[in-house]
Design a protein that fits this description.
Layout: H1 2-15, H2 32-37, H3 53-62, H4 74-86, H5 97-108
Helix pairs in contact: 4-5
Length: 110
Amino acid sequence: MIQKELDELRDQFNNHVVRKINGKVLPSGVSPNIAYVLPDQYGGENHLQPIDKLAAQGLMEAIGGKELIQFVSEEYASCAAEVFHSLGVERLTMQNVWVIFKDMLPLMHP
């Protein structure tokens, strides 16, 4: 739920057009996403460095893999997803998340 809200906020921020301000150091009159992918058109420079994806995956595995960034076991996550879907929730929001959580609890540990 929190990740979904954060993703929506990121998308909203990165896709909105910043008001044009003359003399501003950072790009204006364009969305951050457009300025990011076309830096040369907005007074910027591309300093991204390519990385070897296999090397990055190897490093991730060496420090603990996917389990390192998971809050619960895959079994528990699967059970929670099943219970959630059984409730027929149309949309999870900040307004209904705790009600749904309360409804899920007795079904998680019958």
